[in-house]
Design a protein that fits this description.
322 residues; alpha/beta; Leucine-rich repeat, LRR (right-handed beta-alpha superhelix); eight-stranded mixed sheet; 10 strands
């Protein structure tokens, strides 16, 4: 009998070749990759591996590594894995799938694999900084690798944003390079304006559940006032955690449109205020001279000025500068 065996060639191509296989119970002559199966095609338990695979996906625990390949593998993340093997997992690698779907299972990773702290993304279509926000759901991520293959975000300054967004959860290495204190300080300064905008625009109906999730709400009755008076470091963490990634395209598009309108209004108000300040700055010297002149004229004819004030019923404000 012949059995198909797959081999990965250079360039990522996969080829299959046929090998003669003896159907014996000890499986000693089975080729690599098929040793977990008996002559009847049923899966045998392996001491080292636990996996599921289909036509276009594979999800496998091999030692301390969880490999997730293909879109279909994501539905097995929340399956009841062997508790002992799940606790051994410290590294997770996602490859050949869309990150927007990966983001939907991030909150489940720590439940199923409590010791996972090293995450690697290969060919997952990570394309914008906002997608990094969903990694905060891991709460314990210490090392992050986003491969240049299949991740367009490499054309953007994503390292600095990842440090800003995830360093308070324990992130220490990005793409194999250790994060320095200087990088943390620089990223906080770079995105400080973003924190201020988020805090000022965050509505109360979103602020309260956010504080609850961070276990900061306690017995406070006015979360907004508490946040305004709290320590800057806590305020910064709340602002970072308020940055979320919308997991569905429709929801993301809706919030993006609302955010765009709100931002346009803020920019318009800011420009209007700046124009008024500029106009005041240009006219202030003239206005100040007129105020001083009118004041001196009024005091030089104090009797006439007092009579005018009395006739207008504003005697109590006689010395008010007009």
């Amino acid at each position: 009998m012949r059995c198909a065996q797959s081999q990965k060639m250079k360039g990522g191509e996969v080829c299959f070749r046929l090998q003669p296989v003896k159907l014996v119970s000890d499986n000693k002559t089975l080729p690599d990759g098929l040793k977990e199966y008996t002559r009847y095609g049923t899966k045998q338990k392996s001491r080292k591996k636990e996996h599921h695979n289909g036509g276009d996906y594979v999800i496998e625990i091999n030692g301390n590594l969880l490999s997730v390949l293909g879109q279909g593998a994501l539905r097995f993340i929340d399956r009841p894995w062997n508790p002992g093997k799940a606790r051994q997992v410290t590294s997770v690698q996602f490859s050949s799938l869309d990150y927007n779907y990966v983001a939907s299972v991030m909150s489940k990773m720590k439940t199923r694999f409590p010791h996972a702290e090293y995450f690697n993304f290969i060919d997952t279509n990570i394309s914008c900084l906002g997608q990094i926000n969903s990694l905060a759901d891991l709460q314990g991520l210490t090392a992050l690798t986003i491969d240049a293959v299949g991740n367009p975000i490499h054309g953007k300054p994503w390292r600095s944003y990842a440090i800003y967004r995830l360093s308070h959860w324990g992130l220490k290495h990005i793409n194999g390079t250790q994060i320095t204190v200087i990088e943390i300080t620089t990223s906080d300064l770079e995105f400080r304006g973003l924190s201020d905008v988020v805090i000022s625009c965050l509505p109360d109906n979103l602020l309260e559940p956010l504080l609850d999730r961070l276990q900061l709400n306690g017995s406070m009755t006015h979360p907004r006032e508490w946040l305004d008076l709290t320590e800057p470091s806590i305020r910064t963490v709340v602002a970072k955690e308020a940055l979320q990634w919308r997991k569905t395209k429709q929801e993301y598009s809706t919030w993006r449109e609302k955010g765009k309108i709100h931002l346009e209004n803020i920019i318009s108000m800011t420009l209007c205020t700046l124009m008024k300040l500029k106009s005041l700055n240009n006219e202030w010297s003239v206005i100040l001279r007129e105020i001083i002149r009118d004041t001196l004229v009024d005091y030089s004819h104090i009797d006439t000025y007092m009579k005018q004030c009395a006739s207008k019923g504003c005697f109590g404000h006689a010395f008010q500068v007009r």
